[in-house]
Design a protein that fits this description.
The complex is a heterodimer of chains A (337) and B (323). Chain A is built from twelve helices and 15 strands. With 337 residues, chain A is an alpha/beta fold. Chain A folds into two domains: 2-193, Thiamin diphosphate (ThDP)-binding fold, Pyr/PP domains (Rossmann fold, 3-Layer(aba) Sandwich), CATH 3.40.50; 207-333, 3-Layer(aba) Sandwich (Rossmann fold). In chain A, α1 (17-31) runs parallel beside α7, α3 (71-83) runs parallel beside α4 and α9 crosses α10 (279-291). The longest helix of chain A has 15 residues, at 17-31. Chain B has a single domain, classed as 3-Layer(aba) Sandwich (Rossmann fold), CATH 3.40.50.970. Chain B is 43% helix and 10% strand. The chains are: A alpha/beta (337), B alpha/beta (323).
Chain lengths: 337, 323
């Protein structure tokens, strides 16, 4: 924890992305006795990325539960506890492991309220860690958010910085629906300003992180930082790029996207996930449905190529989109050479 | 045995039987959409277990779930209306047979995915322990469900965390249309309990008293904080996996069906009630008549009820934020 001086002379505390997560968990658990966390290694060890450090010491084994390596039963534990009136957080460690629990997430958690005719609510948060860049290879690196966004009943959140981790996690846990909260592994150590007191960022509201008048970049998660880098480079070339951080992918902030595109008339959608069938396809489609007459160029898309995530650093670098690739797509969409 | 308990067990079984037979007839006459998995033949299991439970005890269920809801005290009108897809049904027509539930009775819903109700019921058991109350979560599942991963994960977790849960296997000898001996290499499903470090017992699932006594012990154990246990109730599904056909199916012998029906759980109990003087023949008939009147009333109610309006389609996908 360090304090840094801002331009207006107010001390702003900086915190790492993962420390913001842990602090929020602790504050919410202090405030609400119905909140607990369960998952593999979340208790005594504090979690594989340290996300739950200190919670078992402070709250005990009933509120910080080390479970067997049983993803279906972990999510089921959360569903049963949520239906019984608690407010569980269950951790699935790697987003790739979400697939192991897909029946409980998609066939059970997402649909329970609807199937039951509205006679229950399901305040369940599923936390996990996505993303490539650590040579973790094909089963520990995926970004599978599009699968989850396709399922009515789920909400999907992917924060890009410590401040948003805090506000979005608080909103996710306090939401009465099943929310999948996806951290990016390569952002965990990244420090940024983050208030100490608990606050909420409403789910479904995007954030314009860089205003611009010439082209809109719609992105989320770790690609927000890469897109800002690309936007900075293009600014030097005289193209004012607006960058929208979606923050929440389901529900999608349709309005902010369309309003921006109507002003800039050009758009590039950027995500780390595989391009084919990714969220970018849905967003590009919504833009052509609602802002077709405003478009000066086809909506561009940046995403990973259609391959599993490779292990070795040279191949992985070629796989993961970065600022250079985003800048290249922006230039192409904007007709710059 | 306490005559009030015997009469209660009898009443619960007759309620299930009469409800299911009526539902089957409506289904056969195309007055019920979808498909239907009937509990007829297995009544002693739900009745024997649920007679031990309190309202605050949870019940996890299966695709063959009507019997569990009836035995937990489910309302015939709202049940029948739900099966017919009506707005007055338990789930306002959005769930149907395979998702019917009553959360006020802590019946956590039938479930269309085999084995998937088990982890959810274990989650309810966790909530009981978390709150420090003495409620117990009971989960019903078939012999076939013990072959799926979700069951194994949940049973192991319940034992590892010492949760107040009771696992009730309704071994009806068939997983859908395949006989059990082709899908597992053990004779008794209860053998699996030892692998989780859980006490287990196999009982005659056609003998409601045997089921009741086993459930009494298992529930008392869980309530006292000694963790989960396992009951295998050996029972039989009179009807086909779904629908109302009993005889003439390809995968089982008619003679086998007849053999099991000779040990019908309701007839067995009635013989005992008559022999011990707990009820006389007229008393037995009165129970059936009263239950049938309630079933007929529920059918009228369901038929007279409206279908939900199309504008309800997108309602209850999410809980709206109300803060």
């Amino acid at each position: 924890m360090t304090a840094t001086e801002t331009t207006d002379g107010v001390d702003v505390r900086e915190l790492s992305y993962v420390a913001a997560f842990t602090e929020t968990m602790r504050q919410i658990m202090q405030a609400d006795p119905d909140v607990f966390v369960a998952g593999e290694d979340v208790g005594a060890s504090g979690g594989v990325f340290g996300s739950f450090t200190g919670l078992q010491e402070e709250f005990g084994e009933m509120r910080s539960v080390d479970t067997p390596i049983s993803e279906q039963a972990i999510v089921g534990l959360g569903i049963g506890a949520a239906v019984s009136g608690l407010r569980p957080v269950v951790d699935l460690m790697f987003m790739d492991f979400v697939l192991v629990a897909m029946d409980q997430i998609v066939n059970q958690a997402a649909k329970l309220k609807y199937m039951f005719g509205g006679n229950t609510s399901l305040p369940l948060t599923i936390t996990t860690n996505a993303g490539a860049g650590l040579s973790a290879a094909a089963q520990h690196s995926q970004s599978l958010e599009a699968l989850l966004c396709h399922v009515p009943g789920l909400k999907v959140v992917m924060p890009s910085n410590a401040h948003d981790v805090k506000g979005l996690l608080a909103a996710s846990i306090r939401d009465d629906n099943p929310v999948v909260f996806v951290k990016h592994k390569r952002l965990l150590g990244q420090r940024s300003p983050c208030p100490e007191e608990l606050f909420e960022i409403p789910l479904g509201v995007a954030n314009v992180v860089r205003p611009g008048s010439d082209l809109t970049v719609v992105t989320y998660g770790r690609m927000v930082g890469e897109s800002l880098k690309a936007a900075g480079q293009l600014g030097d070339d005289g193209l004012e790029v607006e960058v929208i951080d979606l923050r929440t992918l389901q529900p999608l902030d349709h309005e902010t996207i369309i309003d921006s595109v109507k002003r800039t008339n050009q758009c590039v959608v950027v995500h780390e996930a595989v391009r084919f069938g990714g969220l970018g396809a849905e967003i590009a489609s919504q833009i052509q449905e609602h802002a077709f007459d405003y478009l000066d160029a086809p909506v561009g898309r940046v995403g990973a190529p259609f391959s599993p995530v490779p292990f070795t650093p040279t191949l992985e670098k070629a796989y993961v989109p970065d600022a250079a690739r985003i800048a290249e797509q922006i230039r192409s969409t904007a007709g710059m050479r | 045995m306490n005559p009030d308990v015997l009469r209660d067990l009898h009443h619960r079984m007759v309620r299930i039987r009469r409800f299911e037979q009526a539902a089957g007839s409506l289904f056969e006459n195309s007055e019920m959409p979808g498909f239907i998995h009937l509990y007829v033949g297995e009544e002693a299991v739900a009745a024997g277990v649920c007679a031990v439970l309190r309202v605050d005890d949870q019940v996890g269920s299966t695709h063959r779930g009507h019997g569990h809801l009836v035995a937990k005290g489910g309302d015939f009108r709202r049940m029948m209306a739900e099966l017919m897809g009506k707005a007055t049904g338990y789930n306002h027509g959005k769930g149907g047979s395979m998702h019917i539930c009553d959360l006020d009775l802590n019946m956590l819903g039938a479930n269309g995915i085999v084995g998937a109700g088990v982890p959810i019921a274990v989650g309810a058991a966790f909530a009981n322990k978390y709150r420090g109350n003495d409620a117990v979560s009971v989960v019903f599942f078939g012999d076939g469900a013990t072959n799926i991963g979700a069951f194994h994960e949940a049973a192991n977790m319940a034992a590892a965390l010492s949760l107040p849960a009771v696992f009730v296997c309704e071994n009806n000898e068939y997983g859908e249309f395949t006989p059990r001996h082709k899908t597992m290499a053990i004779d008794d499903v209860v053998d699996r309990a030892a692998g989780y470090g859980m006490p287990g017992v196999a009982v005659d699932g056609m003998d409601v008293i045997a089921v009741y006594e086993a459930a009494t012990q298992a529930v008392a154990r869980a309530r006292a904080g000694f963790g989960p246990s396992f009951i295998e109730a050996k029972t039989y599904r009179y009807y086909n996996h779904h629908g109302v056909q009993t005889l003439g199916v390809k995968y089982r012998d008619d003679a086998e069906v007849e053999r099991w029906r000779e040990r019908d759980p309701i007839v067995l109990l009635e013989e005992r009630l008559l022999a011990t003087g707990v009820l006389d023949r007229a008393g037995v008939d009165t129970v059936h008549d009263h239950v049938q009147q309630a079933v007929d009333d529920a059918i009228r109610f369901a038929k007279d009820s409206p279908f939900p309006e199309p504008d309800r389609l997108l309602e209850d996908v999410y809980t709206e934020v109300a803060r």
